[in-house]
Predict the 3D structure of the following.
Amino acid sequence: MPIEATRKIWMDGEFVDWDDARIHVLSHTLHYGSGVFEGIRAYPTDRGPAVFRLRDHMRRLYQSAHLLMMDPPFSVDELCEATKETIRVNEIESCYIRPLIYLGYGEMGLNPLPCPHNIAIAVWPWGSYLGEEGLRRGVRTKVSSWRRMEPNVMPVAAKGTGIYVNSSLAKVEALKGGYDEAILLNTHGHVAECTGENLFIVRDGVIITPPTSSGALEGLTRHSIMTIARDLGYEVVEANLLRSDLYLADEAFLTGTAAELVPLRSVDDRNVGPRGGDPGPIALELQAAYFEAVHGRNPKYADWLDYVND
């Protein structure tokens, strides 16, 4: 989905014009993938735009930086305020937010420690990552031939820029095969996650998601959906899943900030559930409850929202 340009991008404490937000071609992160990022969304509400779980996202950004031994020059509080100010400056009600900590120009080689640390925050309008049709009717998925990296190969708990080469390879394979999204297994054959989303199945009324020990990211949308589901009375468990569990699920869906909550129509050309691949009732209930929360229409989850104009 093409990026729709806005007016300003926050870079190291200053606003620069969109077209002037540039880095040097010899920046360390461009060569070695040693950056960290977050994906965040702001939604329109009755009180103006609100960022969903802003502080939690920024905390995770700093956790990712810590895992990669990076030392960001701004605090979580400063980045939270910078995010809201960037939305205000661009006069936008609904947007995707991309904070990025990267190693800049000045040193070359595999040692990242002497490199300068830079931070940028960009915002732009962005619809559902897997499309409106995917939100309504679900998406077709395949199990990738690529495996999710082991945590002792790369710190998969971090949202590191270079780490996502793994996901990109799986995504391209799926798209070229005529599918919408890929599912990665770990080297033990257990389901880890999709290329940029966590995965859930429903079986006999129980909602099951892979544990982070499988290689799944500790997603904030994942946590939000697990919380909402339990509040609605569902049993939610973390357990290792085989690909055959995906084939035999009553329902399946994926979650992520960009994708939000999207049902799975099929896995490896096998329809999910007894409805010919149509979304199941639990997925649709959770999807509706999630959108109520992010738009500020359920006071139970008011503390998940950070209002831009307050």
Residues 132-294 form a domain with the D-amino Acid Aminotransferase; Chain A, domain 2 fold (CATH 3.20.10.10). The helical segments are 28-32, 54-67, 76-90, 132-137, 165-176, 220-231, 243-247, 281-294. The mean pLDDT is 97.
